[in-house]
Design goal:
heterodimer, A: 233 residues, mainly alpha, 8 helices, B: 278 residues, alpha/beta, Rossmann fold, 2 domains, 10 helices, 38% helix, globular
Chain lengths: 233, 278
């Protein structure tokens, strides 16, 4: 399928329009859930890290460091992408599956349009552009959620949290998170696109393809997460 | 003109199309008829390249479509319009946007020119005041007409209709048949229609190809079909007593005699027959 995607667009303007539409669908459409998840994962990280660090010899600012690194290295890219696999992946698979079953893909083919290029490529490129942005937003909002939870529960003050955030910060962690984001973005968009594009049958099969796409995407994300961590950390 | 030469298609152990050859002429309605599962849709999809035949050749205007690469096929496909069984309109686009889609993709016209063409073809299929409606807001017949409008918006040389009357009431089906017939003549299109609707066969069948279990069983036109001696074809066409009576009435009209010993008083009165055929 990937090989068949790369051909000269019939009309670059229409492809650009479709790309922008997909950026909006994937990005704006998922922003709400990403923000909500991020706030709570940051908040829970702060509370649970404080619960585990009971030694008086460990400064409270360490909590902020742990929250920062956990959110940047794991929660923002992996957890958010697993959620996106469900939200975006099922949408891509069901959209393409429905188009296949209702012969809309055949209608595009008959017009002389390369449907893999027109329907699949913009989704993958849009995911590669937008999902890393969502991961960055998730990281920022997650850390802010941890900071908010710390001050609201009285675990640590805002100034100590901010001090902890700046201590022993490794910019490479952000780069690593982006490596993960790009890898996961490709999985989230391409796997469901494959299952949706090649669906056969009716409504039941669209549902099955959608579920299968999400499950396989999640497994591949976790597998890729381990491989990337083993190779790059 | 479309030539189909010795097309064969098999899905696993089942032979769906078995050595079918045919010539479909320009400016005519060419019908592929047969019972459900006889291979009509597969043959049509083989002709337009949505399904690759196992062997055989399809020629559009003398050029071998089967042997063309993807880019050459794209050029031919720009000359093809197709009406699908379920209309295959894009759900998220309005009627106007659906019809405008091929223009957006393949022309450099400005918005005004495109709108003029869209309104022209929508007017041609007798659809007015539906521009801003979504497919979900349309009736089955209206969806088919939007499908036809989208299929003809680029002035195609070839029009394919896969069961254009399925799911439509007989009156709307006649309207769609008439529309296909008029468009074929008006634009001198080579039209290929898949159907098992006998009204369509009698109304628009300039050339009829009858498929039986994937094989070409009979070919001819809507005049010859009445007099055909082919047993399988007759079983298919004249499945009901009404149609048998109608056939005999038509033969009486055409030849002045009834081919059996039935009493004419037992048959349906000619005034009850639909105009143009059984």
């Amino acid at each position: 399928m990937i090989k068949g995607m790369f051909s000269k667009p019939e009309n670059a303007k229409m492809y650009w329009k479709e790309f922008i539409h997909q950026c909006s669908e994937i990005g704006i459409g998922s922003l709400g859930i990403v923000v909500i998840i991020s706030v709570f994962m940051g908040a829970v990280s702060t509370v649970q890290t404080a619960y585990q660090l009971v030694s008086p010899f460990i400064p409270l600012s360490v909590i902020a460091q742990v929250v920062r690194d956990t959110v940047i290295l794991e929660f923002a890219p992996t957890l958010v992408c697993i959620v996106l696999a469900g939200v975006v992946g099922s949408k891509i698979a069901s959209e393409l599956g429905n188009m296949r079953v209702s012969e809309q893909i055949d209608a595009l083919e008959i017009m002389g349009i390369n449907t893999k290029t027109y329907l699949v490529l913009p989704k993958i490129i849009a995911a590669l552009v937008v999902i890393p942005m969502l991961v960055i937003i998730a990281g920022v909002v997650g850390i802010w959620g941890g900071r908010l939870a710390g001050s609201m529960t009285g675990i640590l003050s805002v100034s100590i949290f901010d001090q902890g955030l700046l201590e022993a910060f490794l910019p490479y962690n952000v780069i690593f998170a982006l490596y993960k984001a790009y890898t996961f973005a490709f999985i989230i968009s391409s796997v469901p696109a494959y299952f949706g594009y090649y669906v056969k049958g009716g409504a039941l099969e669209i549902g099955r393809a959608s579920t299968k796409a999400v499950v396989i995407s999640c497994i591949l994300i976790l597998f890729a997460d381990y491989i990337l961590a083993a190779l790059l950390l | 003109m479309i030539e189909v030469k010795h097309i064969k298609k098999r899905f696993e152990d089942t032979i769906v199309i078995d050595d079918v050859s045919s010539v479909m002429k320009a400016g005519q309605c060419n019908l592929i008829i047969g019972t459900s599962g006889s291979g009509k849709t597969v043959l049509m999809k083989c002709i337009v390249g949505l399904i690759e035949p196992d062997s055989g050749e399809v020629l559009f205007g003398g050029e071998s479509f089967t042997k063309m690469n993807r880019f050459e096929r794209t050029e031919i496909r720009k000359q093809i319009g197709m009406l699908f069984q379920g209309s295959a309109l894009f759900d998220s686009l309005t009627v106007e946007e659906n019809v405008m889609f091929p223009l957006n993709m393949f022309t450099t016209w400005n918005y005004k020119q495109k709108m003029e063409r869209v309104n022209e073809v929508l007017d041609r299929v007798n659809l007015k005041d539906t521009n801003k409606k979504f497919p979900s807001e349309l009736s089955g017949g209206m969806k088919k007409r939007v499908g036809i409008a989208r299929a003809i918006v680029l002035n195609p040389k070839y029009l394919f209709c896969d069961e254009p009357n399925s799911g439509l009431d007989p009156q709307t089906a006649l309207v769609i048949d008439q529309l296909i017939k008029e468009i074929t003549l008006e634009f001198n299109i080579t039209t290929v229609v898949n159907t098992h609707d006998m009204n369509s066969v009698m109304e628009i069948g300039n050339y009829i190809l009858y498929l039986y279990q994937g094989k070409k069983e009979w070919e001819g036109n809507n005049k010859e079909i009445i007099f055909s001696k082919n047993k399988l074809l007759n079983e298919f066409i004249f499945a009901s007593e009404f149609l048998k009576d109608a056939k005999e009435m038509r033969m009486l009209e055409e030849t002045g005699k009834i081919p059996n010993d039935r009493n004419i008083d037992d048959m349906i009165g000619p005034t009850n027959l639909p105009k143009g055929g059984a």
